[in-house]
Amino acid sequence: MRENDPRLQRDAEGNLRYQGRVLDHQDEPVVDQGLRFDLGTLVSRRNTLAVLGAGAAAAGLAACGSSSSSEETSSSAASDSGSESTTTSDGEIPEETNGPYPADGTNGVNVLTESGIVRQDITSSFGDASGTAEGVAMTLTLTITNMNEDNAPYEGVAVYVWHCTGDGLYSLYSEGLEEENFLRGVQIADANGQVTFTSIFPGCYAGRWPHIHFEVYPDEALITSTDNLLATSQVALPQDVCETVYAVDGYDGSAENLANITLDSDNVFGEDGGELQLATAEGDVDAGYTVELPVAIDPTTEPGQSTDAMGGGGEMPSDAGGEMPGGGTPPEGGMPSDGGGEPPAGGPGSESSTGTESSLVGNTLVSSR
Q1: Average pLDDT, the chain
Q2: Percent of the chain with pLDDT over 70
Q3: Among 106, 325, 110, 296, which residue's Cα sits nearest to residue 216?
Q4: Which helix (H) or strand (E) holds 195?
Q5: 17 contacts 10 by C-beta, under 8 angstroms
Q6: Fewer CB within 10 Å, N or C, the chain?
Q7: What is the Cα–Cα distance from 100 to 77, expressed in whole angstroms?
C-alpha cells in the first residue's frame, strides 16, 4: 500500500519522499510517520503561525520534524532596504488567487498567447501597443526551487509576472490602458532557477498591500493555459522601501493608501503576515531597487487560487476620488475589447454590490486581490 501511494516519490538514493521530505520510517505509510513528521507537514505551508502559537514546546518539535536530508535556508522577512535575499525558502510558497486582472485567459484576454510576451524588460508594451509605464526603476528576481528535489533550482519553468502601475492601474483592464500590455511578461528560469524582470516599482491602491502577482508553469510551451499551472502566488513589498518610493512624484495616493493597511490586515498576506512572500529590497529611488524573493514549489501540490478566495477586498473609500482597488479613476467597463464577453462585476476601480472588487476566476467569484 505504501508503494502505491501516489503522494510518494522515490529519490535517486532510493528513499521515499512526501512533499520533498524523506520519510522518517521508510516501511510505514505517511499517516504512521509520527508526531514530528506530522508537525513538519503542518508547517510546510501556511499553518506556521498556528503551530508556533501552540507554544515553545510545539515549536521545538516542529523544528525537529524538518528533513535531515537537506539544509534549507530561511527566507528573510526583514524589510530593511539594505538587506540581502537568500536563495532558498523555508517552506512552500502559499497558493493565492490570480485576482481580477490576470490576463491569463481566466478573466477575459489571454496575453500569454501573444508573441513577445517572453521578455525581461516589461516596462513598455509590446506588439501593436507602444505605451511605457513611469515610476521608480525596479529589478525583480525570483529564485524558483523544487521541493521534491531537495530545493534544487527549478530550471526551465516559465514564470509570468504582472503588477499595477504607479497609479494603481492594470494594463489591458483599467480605463485608458485597455490597449496597453506593459508590466506583464514571462521569463524562463535559468540553471540557478532564477528569473529576472526589469520594471517599475508598483503603487499602492486602497484595500491591498503593495504586491506583484506571478504564476509558474512547467515550461514556455505550456503558458497559454492555466490548466498547466504549477503555482500561483504574490510578492509582498517591504514597507520601508514602499514609504520611500511613494514620497516621489508619480505615486499620488499611494502613501495614504499604504498608511491605511498593514500586512496583517491585507486580505491576501494577512493570514501569516506574508511570512514566505515578503521580498527583500535594496537600492534607492535614483538608481532603482533590486527586489528578490525565494520561491519554493512542490509540484505535487494541487495548484489553484487560495481556498479563502471569497475573502474581502479591503475597505472601499467613501469618496469618489477613484481610490478603489485597481487605482485611479474608476474605468468604464474595465475589459479590453477582445476580452471575450461582458466585463465582470466590479471591474477595475468599480464597486460591486458587495463592496469589493470581484471577478470570475474559473467557476469561482473572487474578491479583489
Answers
A1: 74
A2: 62
A3: 296
A4: strand 194-200
A5: yes
A6: N
A7: 27
Separation of alpha carbons 141 and 294, rounded Å = 9
Of residues 333 and 295, the one with the higher pLDDT is 295
Burial class (CB within 10 angstroms; exposed 0-12, middle 13-18, buried 19+) of 212: buried
Q: Which residue has the cell 526583514?
A: 78
In angstroms, rounded to a whole number, what is the distance separating the alpha carbons of residues 309 and 49?
A: 20
Using alpha carbons only, how large is the chain's radius of gyration in Å? Answer: 21
Cell of 245: 518610493
Question: In the chain, what are the domains?
Answer: 8-64 (no CATH), 111-367 (2.60.130.10)
Are the CB atoms for 347 and 328 separated by under 8 Å?
A: no
DSSP H stretches of helix in the chain: 35-42, 48-52, 56-64, 239-245, 254-259
Burial of residue 68 (number of CB atoms within 10 Å: 0-12, 13-18, 19+): exposed
